[in-house]
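Consider the following assembly input.
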Amino acid sequence: MSLFRDTYDVIVVGAGHAGSEAAAASANMGAKTLLVTMNLQNIAQMSCNPAMGGIAKGQIVREIDALGGYSGIVSDRTAIQFKMLNKSKGPAMWSPRVQSDRMRFAEEWRNMLEQTPNLDFYQEMVSGLLIEGDKVVGVKTSLGLEIKSKTVVLTNGTFLNGLIHIGDKNFGGGRAGERAATGITEQLVDLGFDSGRMKTGTPPRVDGRSLDYSKMIEQPGDDNPEKFSYLNITKPLTEQRSCFMTYTSPEVHDLLRDGFDRSPMFNGRIKSTGPRYCPSIEDKINRFADKDRHQLFVEPEGWNTVEVYVNGFSTSLPEDVQFKALSSVAGFENVKFFRPGYAIEYDYFPPTQLKHTLETKLVNGLYFAGQINGTTGYEEAGSQGLMAGINAALKVQEKDAFTLSRSEAYIGVLIDDLITKGTEEPYRMFTSRAEYRTLLRQDNADFRLTPKSFKIGLAKESRMKRMEEKKEQSDAFVSFFRETSVKPEEANPVLEAKKSSLMKQSDKMFKLFSRPKITIDDMRQFNAVEDYIQTHNLDNEVIEQAEIQVKYSGYIEKEKNNADKLNRLEGIKIPPNFDYSKLKSMSMEAREKLNKIQPVTISQASRISGVSPSDISVLLVYMGR
Amino acid sequence: MVNNDTIIALATPSGAGAIAVLRVSGKDAITISAKLFKSIHGKKLTQQKTHTIHLGHIVDGKKELDEVLVSVFKNPQSYTGEDVVEISCHGSPYIQQEILQLFLRNGCRMADAGEFTLRAFLNGKLDLSQAEAVADLISSDNEASHKIAMQQMRGGFSSEIAKLREELLNFASLIELELDFAEEDVEFADRTQFKALVDRISFVLKRLIDSFAVGNVIKNGIPVAIVGEPNVGKSTLLNALLNEERAIVSDIAGTTRDTIEDEISIGGIGFRFIDTAGIRETKDEVESIGIKKTFEKIEQSQVTVYLFDSSNSISNLEQVTLEIEKIKNKYPQKPLLIIANKIDRLDDTQLARLQNEIEGVHLLSAKTGFGVESLTHSLLELINQGALRNNETIVTNTRHYDALLKALEEIKKVSEGIDEGLSGDLMAIDIRQALYHLGEITGQVTNDELLGNIFANFCIGK
C-alpha cells in the first residue's frame, strides 16, 4: 500500500537551490510535482556564504527571475545588504549582489514553495531510482517505499557519498550536521554512468559578539539599493547591515603552516579537485607564498543573529589550527567559534552525459541539476534546476524542449559549457565565459527571457505585461533622443563643465548622449529631457535602460552582429545517435569524445576540446552519405 | 540570411593567366559593381536580367582600369545563392589588385577563406558533402600557399605578429581578470604598459600594411637586376619586352633617377627591372662605388640579368667570362640569365664563338626583336621552376593585408579606449576582434566559430 495517491509527473530529489527551483518551475508549469528531501527543515539552505549574486552570478539570478523562478524574489525579501558591483565599468559588468539573512532565506523559500500549486512534499532519503527499460518511472526511499513518476530530477548537491574533512578527522555527511546519501551513485554507475569526485570547502562561523569591528574596515551597502526581481512585489531595502574587511598577516600564515602536516589537502587524504577560483586559505598561502596578506570579509548571517561568516578563510585544517590562526587576525583576538570550517568530497557525474535539456542521455526522463553536474554556486545550481524542472514538465506534457543559446543567456552559456566541454573542477560562471557579454546584461534579462518563458507557460501574464511596458517606455525614450535636437547655446555649458568638445551647430541629443563623458544627469539639465521624464512619469529602471541603449549602442550592435553569425551556424544539425566510430579518418580522441557527447550541431561539435578542425571536415563529409 | 555583407575575392588562380575572374557576392554586389562598371552601351547594371554578360570598363573615378566582361547572377540562381557579379578582367596581377582594392574601397569586404562556399552551403546551394568536396579539391594547394605566404612575410613579420598577439592575449586575460575578480585583491592590468603595447602593435601593423600595400601588393613585381655597361642596350631591351607583350607599365612612385626601375608584366607576372652600372673593374673611385652599388642591387633582386654588347665584346670575351664568374661565385643560388645583345652585328663565325665560349648565353637583338620571345620564356620558366615564388602570394597577401587593416582598426579603438579610460569590458570587445584578425594571419584561432573551424583550409575565392 502506497502512501501516495497519485503517479507524479515530476519527482525532484533534493531541496537545495537546484531542487527548489526545479520543483517550483515544474509545478508552476502545471506538472504534478513531488519534492523529496532528507530534511524538510532545511529547504534551500545556504550551505556556504550568506549571499546571492555577484559578478556573472547576479546576472544569472536576474535571468532566473525573468524566466519566472523564485531565487530573485526570495533574495530580495531576505536581503540585509545590496550592492551593485562593478558600477564603474560598462553595463555588461554591473552585477547585483545581496547579503542574505540565512535563516529567513530558507524560511521564505519554504513559504513560497508551500504556496505553489501542484507541489507536494515528502521527507525521506531517496536511495535509488525505479527504472523500466531505458526509462525512469519513480524513486525508491530508504524505508523501501516506491514513489511512481514520469520523470525524476536529481539535485543531490554534495550529499552523494559526502565525506567531510576537518584536519585528520573525516566522517560521512552531506553538510555539517547532516548525513550523506548513499545508493544512488552505485545504481547509476551500474546503469553505465561515469562518476567522479569533487571537493569544496567552507570557512568557520564565529560569534559576532567576540569580534572587535573597530579594527576592521566597514563595507556598507549601496546608498541607493536596487533589487533582483523585475516584479514590483518586492521592494528595495530601506535599511541595511554592513560587512567588514580585515586581513591575514605573516604571523597568521605561519600558524596555518604549522598545521599543514595534518591538512587533508596536503597529506593526500583529499584527492579530488577543488575550485581554483575559490581556494582554501591554506591553498592561498601555499600557492602565493610571496603575498603576506589576504583579504577576509566578515559577513553577518542575518538581521538578528550574532553568527558571522568569515569569507576568505575556507579551510579544512584541524580545528585547533583554525582557531589559533584566526585568533591572530586583527579584530579576531577574542574570537569564539560557532563551528569550524571543513572540506567536503562528494560524487558528481561528468555533465557531458547530459543533453541541452539536462536530461541524461542514458535514462529517459531522468534529469540532473546543480552540484551533481560538477558546478559550484547557488546561482549556477538554481538556474540548472529551473531549466531541468521546465524540461521535465514539458516532456510530460509532450511539448518541445526549452533551451537557451549562448547569445541569449548566461544560463545558455553554462549548460552548453557543461554538456559540451564537461568540467574537471567545480564550474563557476564568469562573464568572460560568455562570448557576447555585452548582450547578456542584468538590466535586460527580462527583455531576453520573459517572452520565451511566457510562451511556454511559466512566466505569468503580469510579468510579461510589466516587461512590455518597460520596453515600450524605454524604446520611446530612446526615440526621443534620436529625434530631438539641442542647440549649441543650451548644450555648450553642459559640455564645458564635462570638458567635452563644444558644439558649433544644433545636433541630435542621441549623438551628444553617446559621448563618453556625458551621463543621464547631464542630459537632464536640458529642459526637454526633464520635461519628457516628468510627463511620461518614467521610473529609474526605464531611464537607465534608455541610457544604456543610447550610450552603448555601438558596442551592443557590434556584439549582436557577431552573435548572429554564430546563431546561423548553430542551425546546422547533426542527426541524433550518429555513429562516429565508423569514421576511421577521424582521430581516435575525437571519435570517442563525439560518441560520448553526441553534439546536436556542428557548432557545438567544434567547441569540444580534442576535436580538431580537420575532424570536423571529416564529419561533414560523412554526414552527407 | 543575416550575414549578407558583400564580399569579393579572386576566383581564378593568381598570377599568370590571360584572364582573371573576380567574384563579388552579397546584397550589394550588383549596386557596388554598377557604380564601378561603365558599359560600352551605357547599360545600367542594376537594370540587367540575371545570367547576362556585359562588356565595358571598370572605372576608378575618371580612370579606366581595364576592359572587362561582367556577368550578373541574381539570387537565388547563383553559386552562393546571393546576388553575384563575376568580373572577367585581364590576367595581370596588377589589374587584379587594382580592381580588388577599388571594390574594397567601395564597400566590399575581402572574402574569408572559403567564404563563398560557406555561403553556398548556408543557402542550401551545396550540401555538406559537396561543400567538403570543394575543400578537398583545393586543400592541398592551400597548405603550400599558406607556407609561401608565411615566407613572404619578410623579416619574420609573422613570428613578430604571433609574439605581439600573445602579448595582447596576456593583457586581455589581465583585463578579464580585473572584470571577473573586481572584488578581490588581484593585480590590475597596467594601463600605461598596455598603451605602450598597443602603440607597438599599431606601429608594426602600420609598417606591415605599408610594406604589403606598396611593396608587395601594388608594386608586386619580381625584382630583376640588369647588370651591364652603359650603351649595351638596356632600355632597348626593356622596350622590346614591352612591345612583345603589350604589357602594362607602372611607374613606381618615389623612384629616384639614380636607379631606374621599370615594371613590366610578362605572362601575367610583374617583373621589376632594376638598372645597374655593371661591374667592370676600374681604378676610378667614383666607378668603384658604382660597382658596390651594383652588387647591392643584385643582392636585393631575385633574378640577375647579365647584358653585354656582343659586337663590342667579341674581341674580349675573357672579360665577359670573368664578370659572369664573379657574379656566379658571389650568388651561386640566384638565377642568372646571360644575354648577348646586338647579335645582328655579328657574323656567323663570331656567333659560333660566342655560343662556344659562354655557356647558356641567350642571343638577342633588341633592335630586330630576335630572341625576345625566348627571353620571356626563360624568365617565365624561372617562375614555373619555383625559383621565384611570387605566384600564389598575391591573393594571400591581400587577405593578410585585409586582416592587418581590420586588426589596425580594432587596435586604434583599443588605443582610444585606453585614452578615454573606457571600461575593460567594452575594450575587451575590440581586443577580441583584434586578436581574431591577428589570428587570421598567424593561423591561430581564438573563437569557437564554425567558420574558422571548418572552412579555414579552404582556398580563397572558391
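The longest helix of chain A spans residues 461-483. Ask yourself how this observation constrains the way the partners meet.
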